[in-house]
Amino acid sequence: MCLPIVRCTSYQQQQWPILYDFISASVKVITNHWMYRWLLMCKASDSYARLIMFYIFVLSYTFCSDVQSAIIRTVTRDKYMLKPLINFPFLSQSLREFWGRRYNQLIGTIFRESIFQPVLQHLSSKTIVSLIVFVVSSLLHVHLAAVTFTDSRANMSNMIFFILHGIACTIEAHTPFKLPAPLSWLFTQLFLLATASLQIGAFTRVGPDFYTVNAPLLFQQKWIPKLPVPKFCPK
């Protein structure tokens, strides 16, 4: 896969008109800058509230891909679109759905085409191949953490996070029963919340100095509306 540009299906054209991409981008960029200014104001902590703040900040950063997708769909007369980075991950009813179809679909596609499918030609077990993909993903994130942070704990926690999720996905795939949708969604979100600090905790343990030098795209543009930042910091 050279570029994450895919053909629009009739279902996508009907479900998501081009205007939706522009509206989504507008809402996301305002939310992203609002959350960024809130993170700048608050001290570093390991609280779940700060984890959720950073998670919203990350998800809303995809406003760039929404704009690009809208432009591509407009230029190609709605025949092609940019592959979405995320697809409402908070609606996931299983870990396999979260990683396979909703969160960071670009990286998921790259891993599927460059690792999963080629390795599967030599190994007959999808379970083993899936675990290999999670291990490779953990090594990638360990490298990113080592480059970004001086705290070596971030390296090990990233490794534990992805291996833990790989094992959980394996157990889920071999579970002989299926929970009702509401319970499945609840347990999935609780597991993600319980393990989130292993992967993004390093970003919540850094203070305003880190975010000051890592401002989001278009943050200095005055034409973008600014939401008022709350005068308290979640604990």
TrEMBL record:
Superkingdom assignment: Eukaryota
One GO term (biological process): lipid metabolic process
InterPro entries: Wax_synthase, Wax_synthase_dom
Any Pfam family hit: MBOAT_2
Membrane topology (UniProt): Multi-pass membrane protein
Membrane-spanning segments: 51-72, 128-147, 159-177, 183-203
Keywords: Membrane, Transferase, Transmembrane, Transmembrane helix
GO cellular component: membrane
Pathway: Secondary metabolite biosynthesis
Compartments, as annotated in UniProt: Membrane
Main location: membrane
GO terms assigned for molecular function: O-acyltransferase activity
Domain Wax synthase: residue ranges: 83-164
PANTHER family recorded: LONG-CHAIN-ALCOHOL O-FATTY-ACYLTRANSFERASE 3-RELATED, OS04G0481900 PROTEIN
Name the UniProt record assigns to this protein: Wax synthase domain-containing protein
Species whose genome carries this gene: Didymodactylos carnosus
